[in-house]
Design a protein that fits this description.
This protein is mostly beta strands. The protein is 7% helix and 40% strand. It has helices spanning 38-45, 161-166; strands spanning 22-27, 50-57, 66-73, 77-78, 81-82, 97-103, 106-111, 117-122, 127-130, 135-140, 146-153, 170-175, 178-183. The radius of gyration is 16 Å and the shape is globular.
């Protein structure tokens, strides 16, 4: 039996950074086709702001191991839609995931392949359980970075293609100063 060494890291709770972690940056240009208001998207694309950053500690993709990552989801909107992560199913769809709110406010939009959607608000201290077979996307509904931790099976994988193709059945928008969950007119069943 070959044993892995235990690992301890410090997360900067103010910035969400995990020193030494693999860093991924997603700009607005990486989210082409995800937002409904294409005109507002094209206008904001001139600035091409950073929408979110991920700091990941990953293991080999094998059964029984865990990965973890922090995400720093910046505040902003495209039209009425709040900034969000791409969202994904797991490539191994029977894998679950845990999210833990660290800073800021937002929420998680979850969806079954048939389009049944659930919205769970998140703030510091909120734990969200993402069951197997549910797509999930985080959304920043505040005016400061929304920072959270995710823990997931190392072999889960990410299926971004299904979301890029069909989208989510619901949108998270600002309406009269309030957060609203509305039908997505571009949803493809």
């Amino acid at each position: 039996m070959e044993y892995k060494n235990p690992l301890g890291v410090d997360i900067d709770l103010e910035t969400g950074v995990i020193p030494g972690a693999k860093k991924l940056v997603r700009r607005l240009s990486d989210l082409k086709g995800y937002f409904v208001d294409e005109k507002a998207y094209e206008e904001l694309l001139k600035e091409d702001p950073v929408v979110y950053e991920v700091y990941a500690i990953e293991q080999d993709e094998k059964d029984g191991d865990l990965n973890f990552a922090t995400t720093v989801l910046h505040p902003g909107k495209v039209g009425r839609e709040f900034f969000f992560t791409k969202g994904h199913y797991h490539s191994k769809a029977d894998r679950a995931e845990i999210y833990y709110g660290i800073k800021g406010k937002g929420g998680m939009l979850l969806q079954t392949p048939e389009g049944k959607a659930e919205w769970i608000e998140m703030k510091p201290g909120t734990v969200v359980y993402v069951p197997p077979y549910w797509a999930h996307r985080t959304v920043n509904t505040g005016d400061e970075p929304f920072i959270f931790l995710a823990v997931y099976p190392a072999d889960a994988g990410h299926d971004y293609g299904s979301i890029a193709e069909k989208g989510f059945s619901k949108l998270v928008v600002e309406e009269n100063g309030e957060v609203r969950i509305v039908d997505n007119p571009k949803w493809k069943e």
